Amino acid sequence: MKIHAAVIHEMKKPRPYRESRPMSIEEVELDGPGPGEVLVKMRAAGLCHSDLSTINGDRPRPLPMVLGHEAAGEVAEVGEGVTDLSPGDHVVFSFAPSCGACSSCLSGRAALCKPGAAANTAGHLLGGGMRLHKGGKKIYHHIGVSGFAEYTVASRRSLTRIDPELPFHIAALFGCAVLTGVGALVHTAGLRLGQSVLVVGLGGVGLAAVMGAVGGGARQVIAADIAQDKLETARAMGATHIVNSGDADAVEQVREISGGGVDIAAEFAGVARALEFAYESTARGGTTVTSGLPHPDVRFAISPTRMVAEERTLKGSYLGGHVPSLDVPEYIALYQSGRLPVDRLLTHRLKLDEINLGFDRLANGEAIRQIIDFD
Ligand SMILES: [Zn+2]
Ligand SMILES: [Zn+2]
What we know:
The protein is an alpha/beta fold. About 30% of the residues lie in helices and about 25% in strands. InterPro entries: ADH-like_C, ADH-like_N, ADH_Zn_CS, ER, GroES-like_sf, NAD(P)-bd_dom_sf.
């Protein structure tokens, strides 16, 4: 079938993007769903910093590609062997497809699925290859989702069926921001009632982490960013303290507030300085978690002696360490009961042809979560 999609052909185009237009809206061909696959009519897709990282070249991907990995839609057609989804079902995408059979999946670490990671790196679907093309040339999928398109074909194992009462523009947020942010604290760091938490980097994922810390019963939730308006937003979402991480004495401020360092520091800014700040702000015996994705060449130096003598833990967190089909419905239930107000992350709603302008806003720090609505 012919569909419209936002296609990126080249990374590192100059800003402003509304002029350089790194993504062009084009008519492309989408094949029907193969075995184990589903054709989804896109209804809402979020603009995430990880998309921006491909646009600006920090996270290189094979091109041309249709980006977008935080999305929700409606099942239009199911491929052979898909028996548990039907046309009309509402689904949220996961950007980490899980095969259900590899050692990672079998040990409950679906976000680390080995065939899923290999397919994502290649720009293929879990079942192999691509379903998008134009003029005989293949177009790569973005981590199994490719949300910036009117329709997409995805593996069944990239999809979670959700409550049809939930509006699509809210549902999409559960695909990346909520899972990644909340999960970094409650899964990866194992947040316990009464602990002190520092969240560094207050984009959509970081603010979701603030909500997760509040909802998870943290005693102190210290929010840090270099942008004062984001600090105020975090306070409105329940942060008990705010620290401008651009201040020369930011680490001392956190140590003062928390009485010597926080139990858990989580970093979402994707820059080495922010991770250093998080690590230095963590108490002896504490845990530092990072979900930031700086350029792969970036390095971060730590003292092994301090790590040993102070029993420090440093952990990476991908997709919040979640099993989406298990966790997404639970988080949606928390949202519906008012305990995880993820709608507060939403600052802008736009149309697909405004996508370059939307990425200008994200790059300029003028937006938290922007959602593209599809008719
Ligand atoms: Zn994302
Ligand atoms: Zn697997």
